[in-house]
Amino acid sequence: MKILVADPISPTGVELLKKQEGFEVVEAYGSTPEKIKELIKDASAVIVRSETKITADVIAASECLKAVGRAGVGVDNIDIPAATEKGVIVMNTPTGNTVSTAELTFTHMLCGARPIPQANASMKEGKWNRKAFKGSELNGKTLAILGMGRIGSEIAKRAQAFNMKVVAYDPFLTDARAKSLGVDMVDLDTAFRTADYITVHMPLTPATKYMVNAEAFEKMKKGVRVFNCARGGIIDEKALVAALESGKVAAAGLDVYEDEPPPPDSPLLKIPNLVLTPHLGASTKEAQESCGIEVAEVIMLALRDGVIKNAINAPSVDAETMKQIGPYISLCEKLGTFVQQISPEKVEKLSIKYFGKLADTNNKPLTLAIQKGYLSRISDSVNDVNAPVKMKHLGIEVESVKSNADSDYSELVEVSAICSKGVSHTVAGTVMGKKAKPRIVRIAGHSMELSAGGKCLLLIRNVDTPGMVGVIGTVMGKYGCNIANMSLSRVDEGGFALTAFELDSMPSAEAVKELESNENFKSVRVVDLS
Hints:
This protein is of the alpha/beta class. It folds into four domains: 2-95 and 285-305, Rossmann fold; 98-276, NAD(P)-binding Rossmann-like Domain (Rossmann fold), CATH 3.40.50.720; 315-452, CATH 3.30.1330.90; 454-530, ACT domain (Alpha-Beta Plaits, 2-Layer Sandwich), CATH 3.30.70.260. It contains 17 helices and 22 strands. The chain has helices spanning 11-18, 33-39, 56-61, 80-85, 98-113, 116-124, 150-161, 175-181, 188-194, 214-219, 237-246, 285-305, 319-341, 364-375, 387-393, 468-478, 509-516; strands spanning 2-5, 24-27, 45-48, 67-70, 89-91, 142-146, 165-169, 184-185, 197-200, 224-228, 249-254, 274-276, 347-356, 397-402, 411-419, 424-432, 437-443, 446-451, 456-463, 483-490, 496-503, 521-528. The chain has a seven-stranded parallel sheet with strand order 8-7-6-9-10-11-12, sandwiched between helices. Strands 14-13-15-16-17-18 form a six-stranded mixed sheet, covered by helices on one side. Strands 2-1-3-4-5 form a five-stranded parallel sheet. It starts with a strand and ends with a strand.
């Protein structure tokens, strides 16, 4: 089997593959896209870092490709839908660069505290200007970490060694996990207002894009220092430049950018108290060695033994099990993302119950699918292998129960997000009909019937009084949002009812705001199922 190594990885990893009987390893570093399409034609696997793009055209050119291995975390350079459609497994190496990125972040923090790069440049110009490079100590300062995953946790350890007070903002981290890390959990406003240093370690999602913007800088202390070695776009670069120029931000450091590389006329390149590095988070000998060996191992296991690890786009199950539970994989991912979006409180536990035939089969892949769905909007590079680890990092317990209790359906999956003080949010679903369509059949104790395969659901808890449906329909029509289907449910007459709408598109913020302003609506929730 031919393995195409398109980007340089650790020689140890390459040698590991070459030693395997039946493997032909072709190293083709720096190849053009056309050359890659030629070489991949008869390849069983291809290994890349971030340089080579595995596009839909490249995948289409392959005739026997089984696996793509990414030596690193991000898979933006791989067309996942095209790979999935062709049955190609995409795998990454999620743990190899944790320490290297944490250490780079701390290096940026130290350079923000003591202007070493600027002093070095001055010295090499023949100057001796000690007064120009007065710094600040980390000792006793407050560091706010936005995002407490693997890398954020490593940053906390290092900051504590420097006697910094560490506060953390992560809406999905439990108090117990925070306590074990020795950090104080705070809300985002408190993090902005109290921190002397702020570092970002979140994925780039619609919720985190421009999280650190002009409004956020206004809330910060004068002289704050800000760093981003996570994803470009979390910090609004224009707002950062303005804050640096005004003196609100004393120093900053970036390893990632909205456009990479930044254009030659970028104002970022002209700010003296801003240290820039060219996306070096994983650029250490140790990280490259670790990622190179790990990617070689996952490719080797997939091709030689049929064992799938770190899969981005495929569950690790045998064909027979997949045949039985396959229709429920999509449903479970939707239930996971649904319950995450309707749980405003801090979730401490996911309780999953399987009823009917699902209680008698291997439902581990379904539990993984629920976790992946739950994490899909709050974490990046989630797959069957790392989803449980990511849940553990957040301090969220996952409980799976096979129930023999009676149910209204022959097969049912129920997911409950249990929050502090015993508050819980529950959704249940099943698969219906010959076409095995995923359906949501219960929300918070209310019997419903809604498609889980649509784009968006609007959930409104309203006073059970005439005219409510008309009010909602009028607002949706006013803002051009089409209602595809609806379901109503109440427990007691005259109390509160739950009204759910399937929408063809996400409602605008203005539409939601108008609904929320209605005194008859206790709560308005928009759930993105796309």
